[in-house]
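Entry type: protein chain
Record version: 2
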Amino acid sequence: MSSSENVSGLAESDGFRVFWTAFDPLDVASGSIDPVGFLRGYLALVDRLLPGLTTVTDVPRYGSMICAAASAAAAEIPASDDLRGAKLRQRRLVLIKAYERAWALACGFAARDDKIGPVALEGVRGVRYVNRRLDALTPHTKYIRSSSFNLLSNQVRYGGIGIYSAFLDSCHLLNSADLSLRPAGERLAAAFPPPPPDLAAQHEEAPLSIDALTRWGAKTHPSAITPPEARRLAEGLEGGGESDWDDEVRWSMLRLLAPYAKGETSASETEVLRAVLTSLVSGEGVAKRVPRNCADQIRAVLTVVEPYERLYQSVLFLFQAIQAAATDEPEAPFAQLAGADSIKAAVAASAKASRDLPVALKGATDLHGGSVRPIADALQGSGVTGLAGQLVLAASPVSVLDIVLGRHEAVQSGKFDDGIRKASWIKRQASGKVRLSAQRFRLGVKGRRQKWWDVGRHPYRTSAAFAFIRACGDRIQ
């Protein structure tokens, strides 16, 4: 587990210690999705644009639902001299899990109402588990217990309580140590429509009326956010009375993104980020929209993002070209790959990006050194800076391919992630050919890109940002 996304707490049970953290598909040790070692640098960049959000925190109503669940748990299990910290957290966690399962069931029942439809389950974690449980009910069933189904195989990590933990903590809504609400979280919880009085949502063995669940789900499903909730969500995103630097940056970035979140837009994330950078460079509207110091940090980070992502795209393209060749032939002639036009274009792009990256870092440091120094350290520590230096000096496309393959081998050997060793996907042969080290590392035809710029960039959390902007309405503008 990487520490780059905020670790939100620690639970203990029978001597077994479990970290509770926001789950992000990109926040794992390199080896399955990061064969050329660019994840650490990406996380250092994105954490200085939208701190507290992740690529999967894109259903704002989870924030108010989890706060409501925490409120119910705190009311039932108050802190005491004998019950504090991890023990208190563990007791409350049981109730919060049950509340989330009951809410997911309520959304499932609401989705079966023709007047609401599938929108009631849009973005709900474990939706297949919910539908499977509801499909198993008989027409005569009047009550259901939330203990009768698993919301997910690991609800604490992959459910709302895990996915949104870093967001709740970062926005000063929830204390992760004991799952107690902060003042802003209490206000958000109060804005969430409570379950009917006869619906004990936080008790997993309580018989829950299907009729009551359906009525509750109609008011609480992801697309039914109320104006009071929207106001309290915006308060959390802005930081409220506990606002700190990360809150100011997040709020500033949300305001810069707001014009692109209205309605449906065909602009890609890359185009949106470039447009934001252009507006910051020109100074157009910045003084009215965000404070100058926040604008400088965002501008500095976006300045580095551009060459960093081009370097990532071109290097990953070259690695995947080697991987594809080794997939198609038991032993692929390494040197022959360099003659393809697509390889030559990627080699040229990697050289240009390698020259542009240190220039961007220098300019960004001059603009906002405090935010750029951790990024520079991450690029240095992960070996990206050294890789760029090698690519600038490479004498031929063959030598570039050799550098890229060497980079993969170094990443897999654990050189850049504290010694976590993983198998290299591709092995060099004494004959000058390459082969896959295992069949599971094959690259299928659908996974291949024809040009280096077809390789997708890292996601910079704008989809999650847009979801919160839309949920908060005109409160972010």
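Comment: Residues 120 and 223 are 7 Å apart (CA to CA).
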